[in-house]
Amino acid sequence: MDMREIQVFRAVMRAGTTSKAAHLLGVSQPAVSQAIRRLETAAELRLFERVRGRLVPTQEATALIEEVDRCFSGFEMIEHRIRSLKSFGLGRLAVGALPALGTGFMPRAIAHFELATRRVQLSFQILSSREVYQRVLAGQLDFGLMADELDVSGLEHSEFLRVPGVVAMAATHPLARKQVIEPSDLATHPFIALNPEDASRRRLEALLHQQGYEISPILETPYSNTICELAMRGLGMGLVHPVMGLDYVQRGVVLRPFALEVSFCTLLVFRPGNPLSENAKAFLRSMRIQLDADLAQLAPVLHR
Fold first, then answer.
1. Residues in contact with 302: Cβ distance below 8 Å, sequence separation at least 6, in sequence order
2. Three-state DSSP class for 58?
3. What is the block-wise mean pLDDT of the chain (304 residues), using blocks of 10 residues?
4. Contacts from 146-153 at CB under 8 Å and sequence distance 24+?
């Protein structure tokens, strides 16, 4: 099979017609049709049905395009890398973080890093923990921050942050004046929970079960920031990542300690055998300085 024919196949699958694929590739429509026929012959597979002059993908084509897209995504990363090397030399840094630290903490750390005074191009992505793991493993990120509920086989990792969760609620909530939220409070007031697969949710349920309590959430969501948004609107209270909760304090959300220590753990992950660049090390120092500042601000809530 010829790589050009694979490229034509991908263009047809993306564009939907041979004429649009030909326009994308800058070739004639007959050239596209011929390339598809050669690919089918070489592969000994029928990839398209000819229906009233149009190519309709078969199940085999749909299965094949997944592998083709994975292959081409690697080439696209190489092209992207070449362009960034032309513009910035080795001064490029790619980082990903889970939403709990990505939406507030990381922008603060980036501001502390003072990009404008450095010859560094930073690519920062807010991703699920699974996506952080996959992209670090694939070499698309220099390092990432992810939750501890996933297996991190194949990556170097260390604990970046472990903090007890705090209870977020609106300032008008009946429990807003309490100094510490008790397990019984979660069972008797509307509760907004993280998704069942979340490691902190599982730790919470295990501790509550030991105390003889069960929670019946009125809402479930994968992210602490969504819990804060919902709590701010008076829909209930929820256990959240305190660093994420810090972003909402000035917006009317009250944070209170929880009587039981339910930890939120964030891992720093990077590829083994790939020493971090000086830019990456410098950025990590900025992250840790910002983390110390955030934790100092949270001290009254964390030290119950």
1. 163, 164, 166, 242, 257, 295
2. coil
3. 83 87 88 89 86 83 85 72 56 90 95 83 92 92 93 93 96 94 93 92 93 92 93 96 93 95 95 87 95 94 77
4. 146/97, 146/98, 146/266, 146/267, 146/269, 147/98, 147/100, 147/198, 147/199, 147/200, 147/264, 147/265, 147/266, 147/267, 148/199, 148/265, 148/266, 148/267, 149/197, 149/198, 149/199, 149/202, 152/267, 152/269
